[in-house]
Specification:
The structure is a single chain. By secondary structure, the protein is an alpha/beta fold. The chain is 44% helix and 12% strand. The protein has a single domain, classed as TIM Barrel, CATH 3.20.20.70. A five-stranded parallel sheet has the order 1-2-3-4-5, covered by helices on one side. Strand 2 (41-45), helix 3 (65-75) and strand 3 (80-82) form a beta-alpha-beta unit. The longest helix is centred in the N-terminal third of the chain and has 13 residues, at 25-37.
Length: 160
C-alpha cells in the first residue's frame, strides 16, 4: 500500500505527507521509503493530542508505541516529526529522543489553540529547533477567524 499511496500523492502534486504508523513497523518503513522514493517529505507522528490514545490513559495504543514509531522514523531518515503541541512534557521527551540521532529535527505541533496547547510553551519545549504550529479549530471555530489567525501568527513570529 505504501507504493500505491505514494504514487497517488505524487501524481496529485503533494509535497509532504503526515503519517501516523499505527499499522506497525513494516508498514511504517514501507510508507516512509515509498514517500522518499517519490520525492516527498514524510512527517511522522506517534503521539496524538486527544485523551485516551495510549493504553495507560484508557486507549488502545500501548504506551511505548509512539517512542518506537519515532525511533523507526529516525532510522529511515525522517526529519519532520508530529508531536502533540498540548503535551509539553512529551514534546520535550520526544525532542530529546529524536535529537540524539537527528541533527536538525523539525517539530510540527497540532493541539495548539482549542485543545489547550500554547505556541509559546510548545516552541519553548524545542527551543533552538525548527517548530511549526498546526492550528485548525483555534482559527476556524473562532468568531473572528482573521483576528485569531493574526494572534497565532504574531505569537509564532516571536520565535524567529
Amino acid at each position: 500500500m505504501g507504493d500505491k499511496f505514494a504514487e497517488v500523492c505524487s501524481k496529485a502534486g503533494v509535497k509532504a505527507v503526515i503519517i501516523f504508523p499505527m499499522a506497525g513497523p513494516a508498514a511504517e518503513k514501507a510508507f516512509i521509503e515509498a514517500l522518499f522514493k517519490r520525492g516527498m517529505v514524510p512527517w511522522v507522528g506517534g503521539e496524538m493530542t486527544h485523551e485516551k490514545y495510549l493504553s495507560g490513559e484508557g486507549g488502545f495504543i500501548h504506551d511505548e508505541a509512539p517512542r518506537e514509531m519515532y525511533k523507526i522514523s529516525v532510522e529511515c531518515g525522517v526529519e519532520y516529526f508530529v508531536v502533540p503541541g498540548n503535551k509539553i512534557g512529551l514534546i520535550r521527551e520526544y525532542s530529546t529522543l529524536i535529537s540524539e540521532t537527528v541533527s536538525e529535527p523539525k517539530f510540527c505541533m497540532p493541539g495548539i489553540g482549542s485543545q489547550g496547547g500554547e505556541i509559546r510553551k510548545a516552541f519553548d519545549a524545542v527551543r533552538g529547533k525548527d517548530a511549526y504550529a498546526i492550528i485548525g479549530s483555534g482559527i476556524y471555530k473562532s468568531k473572528d477567524m482573521e483576528r485569531a489567525a493574526r494572534r497565532f501568527c504574531e505569537e509564532a513570529m516571536r520565535f524567529l
